[in-house]
Amino acid sequence: MKIAMMARNPNLYSHKRLVEAAEQRGHTMEVIDTLRVYLNVASHRPELRYKGEKLEGFDAVIPRIGASVTFFGTAVLRQFEVMGVYPLNESVAISRSRDKLRSLQLLARQGIGLPVSVFAHATSQAEDILDIIGGTPVVIKLLEGTQGIGVVLGETPAAAKSMIQAFGGLRANILVQEFIKEAGGTDVRCLVVGDKVVASMMRTGAEGDFRSNLHRGGSAEKIKITPEERSTAVRSANIMGLNVCGVDMLRANHGPVVMEVNSTPGLEGVEKATGIDVAGKIIEFMEKNARPNRTKTRGRG
After folding, report:
1. CA separation for the pair 79, 158 (Å, rounded)
2. CATH superfamily, domain at 117-179
3. Is the pTM of this model over 0.90?
4. What three-state secondary structure class fits 56?
């Protein structure tokens, strides 16, 4: 296969591993800087152009679209789809998963376990929000944040109200969620490829930090997940319509609760923690499924 990978930085671990895995299996891969692509959207001859030349002849495309370029990145991916190129993850599914509120609404509609969550914009009703959640501590998130940025912990009613009001003063969209104390500052990330969890790890936050993101100094170790966690991860991926994703869960007393479904999961942490060739499994999935014009978003909403 001739594969395109949409990525801003070809030197990231995940991107180098995907190229390596593809080449080991006899495929060729071209890394394309997403923001340097431009589109000819003519109905009879849709084109993608890059560095003055047409992008053509590709059998599949791997979108590694950063959160900050979601709008333009999914536009480029849609153009690949219009041209009949098979996408590892489809544009609609990526857009769906990047909208934190929309993704939670879709998961809730299908009965996936979630923390109690309240969405608000510039609200003055901090006390009512805390009552809905069931009191403090609460986690307060900016909807536009990534990698743990824009996520704070309100440990007391006074602190939580102040934070909610402060975000309100910024006219920001916020998500207020219950704090799962029993998770103990850890979460579970499951890497889903197709309809299988191919690798899983437990992430622990840096000392004194309730966030478990590896980018924030957290650590990871291989774990064995429960059948319920496995089912929750696969169902969450299917609801989003994603073929490849990272599903982040907390272990609550009443079972797993999903925090996020990440359409562009990093591979470094999970491959090093588990020793599993996740990149290879992604390429194997594409070998089995890549067909021209095979683009049909799964799920609804």
Report:
1. 49
2. ATP-grasp fold, A domain (3.30.1490.20)
3. no
4. coil
